[in-house]
Design goal:
Blueprint (H helix, E strand, L loop, with lengths): L1 E6 L4 E14 L3 E12 L6 E9 L16 E4 L5 H29 L6 H11 L4 H8 L8 H16 L12 H15 L5 H9 L3 H17 L7
Antiparallel strand pairs: 1-2, 2-3, 3-4, 4-5
Helix pairs in contact: 2-4, 2-5, 2-7, 4-5, 5-7
Length: about 230
Amino acid sequence: MLCKALHNKGERIFITAKLPDYIRVGKEDLIEKYLFFTTSHDGSGSITAAFTPIRIVCANTLNAALRTQTNTVRIRHTASAKQRLEQAHRVMGITDTLSSQMQNIFNYWATVPIKDKAVKKLITLALAPSKEIYSNLKNNTTQELSSCFTNMIDNAFDYAMNDETQQLPTTKGTVFGAYNAVAGYFQNVRAYKNQEAKVKSLLLAGNAQQRNQTAFTLCSEFATNKLQLS
């Protein structure tokens, strides 16, 4: 297991630990498995440990939680050694379970075709800035969208259609590609104030992680014919 500090200036410490083996999508699309840890700089707060898959070719963070399995464990700083060991076992159990489930899901998504128009609708829904706008868009209710929101949609859709990592057999014209388009926008296109802001957005229940979770849910529904994107 290789560990790397992402950020250690300020109020929180962020560390990633690379796990062995990969989540494999198709023949050559590999997703590395990481554990992400964060705690307060002075060690007084709880430790958050989260399973965080990262697709190698684009560095996209694909850390959605499944309905039946959380991807995060919090360990209280006052916990005993026995309790911490139990939580560590729980983290590894979550990692094994999610790795297997995500590999199955992503490989299935890589076989499900999706048209460009539907990709743009999925991106639009995933990036919706509020529940009201999301509901209106999903129900095809006409409303004026802000220029900021439409620019986000256009940039994410451009990434979906043109980025070289979206042209692989696993991503081109597939639901897996649509999911990666949203993740790729937040990882590789969107601008952040600094690296800490990016980490918080992607990994600490920030805007990027919430939008990626929405994209994951939408892709799940579309791939199982529970959602029509028109």
